[in-house]
Amino acid sequence: MLSIQNLHAEIDGKVILKGLTLELGAGEIHAIMGPNGAGKSTLAYVLGGRPGYEITGGSVTFQGKDLLDMAPHERAAAGLFLGFQYPVEIPGISNVQFLRTALNAQKKERGEAELSGGAFLKIAREQADGLGLDMDMMKRPVNVGFSGGEKKRNEMVQMGIIDPALAVLDETDSGLDIDALRIVGDGINRIMRKPDKAVLLITHYQRLLDYVRPDFVHVLADGRIVRSGGADLALELERAGYAGIAA
């Protein structure tokens, strides 16, 4: 589904990714772990198409198409979802308005019929219920006044409504308490653990992987994947840290 080959990227002249290579197949969940400054968030931003990052080498293919040749909205319509470490607030625009507009824009890009208000609200209610988010919160401005846990649950509701083929989740566990972590983990499994979908889960800690068990774990250090393994690698990193492993 996703093929990253020898990817190099920099921002403001600072080289961050230094030949990163990674393959994700349909039906797989991959976790990326690594120390601060390794390039984890940069990888997420590059895949999502965030401005300011210059690709200086390598390639990224998503479902057979050149991802780096697509604009951010084209990547989203093609089935890529980017979850942020710090979800942004959008005053003046309700969650319902924002998500219906986003979903229908993607459908239009793909040549599909847009959803009516009633059909959209049914989907939104199902996803909100699944994440324990009151439907009244869906009528509020996007993330305004939400706690950290509510913002992350709201982002998972967004993912459920958009229903992407590939979710790139950048430190989704950041700021979550134990209960919220379980709810968000269950949401990722319910929405994305399917044969035709894939997840790239970027995290510092093993704790989220107790709920979302990865098929593969990769250690990212100094802009490259330096080690890969199964789910047990995350436990090893939790015990021993990155010293030595990332050397």
From TrEMBL:
Signal peptide span: none
Organism: Sphingomonas arantia
Keyword annotations: ATP-binding, Nucleotide-binding
Domain of life: Bacteria
CDD domains xref list: ABC_FeS_Assembly (cd03217)
Pfam families (alphabetical): ABC_tran (PF00005)
Residues in ABC transporter domain copies: 2-247
Name this protein carries in UniProt: Fe-S cluster assembly ATPase SufC
Family, per entry: Belongs to the ABC transporter superfamily. Ycf16 family.
